[in-house]
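Supplementary Text 2. Reproducibility record for the structural model of the 493-residue chain.

All settings were left at their defaults, and a single model was retained for analysis rather than an ensemble. We include the record here because the model underlies the residue-level annotations in Supplementary Table 4.
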Amino acid sequence: MLWRTLPLLLLGLTAPSLASPSQSFENTAVVRAVELGGAVVHVTTTYAIKATKPGAKVYTIALGLEEKERTSWLDVRVKGQQTSLPTSGHILDSSQNYHLIDVTLERPLALDSTLNLVVESHQTHATTPWPAEASQKEDQALKYQTDLFILSPYYTAVQRSKIKSLVPRIISFTTPEGLEDFTSDATATKQGAAITYGPYNNIPSSANQNFIQKYQQPISIHYHHEQPVLEVTKLTRSAEISHWGNNLNIQDDLTLHNAGPRQHLARLKGHFSRLEHQSQTFYKRPAPQTLPALTLHLPAGISNTYYYDLIGNVSTSRLRVAPPTPKGTHAKRFSVLELRPRYPILGGWNYSFTLGWDAPLSDSAAYDKSTGKYIVEVPIMTGIPGAVVNQAEVSIVLPEGATDVSFTTPFPAISNTISTHTTYLDSIGRPKLTFEYKDLTLNHVRSIYVSYSVPLSAHLRKPYVVATAFFSLFALAIVGRRINLTINKQKSL
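Retained model, structure tokens:
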């Protein structure tokens, strides 16, 4: 399932419940793996569960409030399977420091039967640049903070957390104290690029205020990060469908920001030196916080690609177009765009640009003869590796005269509206769907499916309007040539 944190919607959200989860399970082991990044942190938690009552089917997981706020994507599956399990969230209680989510299993478990559940999530704005300022020559360091214990409403026999950075350059980490009730060994150990907390044994039900106040404590990791921290502060995507031109035009207006999460910016200390930048590029030792270029995967078979910024067209880019994917095949092809901004983007710098292209409508549209409706697939966004999209607005402009409009989204939007968009040679305007999202990552690179009907009269409206416009122009010219606008008539001799 996909989870949007704002306004805290859950895909598959059914009637929420405030009731405490029944003690139908116990955790034989809970293992959390955290892969540290820049703007996005990937967390995988595996629950080895055991049914303590026959017919148990609903398992409940718990998230701390801070973890819940920064989780933008969440997926629950049985280990080794590809199908996501349905989930539903309890009503948020402000007096509690945790949030409960029910997971419905495929089938009830018999007494003492076991199962492994894998919960994957993406956390956005979870790291902070530390120190907040860095020069061109200095390394970039980030700080990540989370809770020590993995909360659960069930008894846990053993739990362990492993936090790993991309490179084995960890500056410092927290060593928890006061855990004599759960372990007699070292509470935290470091090996290479990984910090391991635990194992901690015989943990009672921890999703309650008493346990949180007595044992829960924050832990932080201070580590080097050798990639730029990227955010797209604003993405505006406009997709326009044209049946007459068999064309799907997509245009993205983006504001790219090289910064730390939560707007605690990693600013450039001192003045920018072009000489230093060229030297680093020549010796292939670029500063880790510098973004010199981007590589984007665009749809196959596109044409008329354009890329410009506030100054004008940017020629420092390279596009390799892949041929269209034949229908009925599962092979995925991508056109590769090597995009190089007009200047290197350092910490705290912004870069606004526009990217657009045309694609054959037949590659993403189908016609259902039984209903007489068109079905068009429109991607929500183009993924930027390692970046989070803070705010996104996706607009889909349908053909003029489209009726019976419906849509299906892969995950809930913050809001969606239907309005009228009018452009040249339009008579009544075109239906326009607008969707708003927040905190999107690569796992949100999905598509919106829009279905609609276009009657024959609507198809003929455009040529009728064009013919009427030309006829009116010619009629006006004919009448104009026959009107004598001279003031004094010349007398003939």
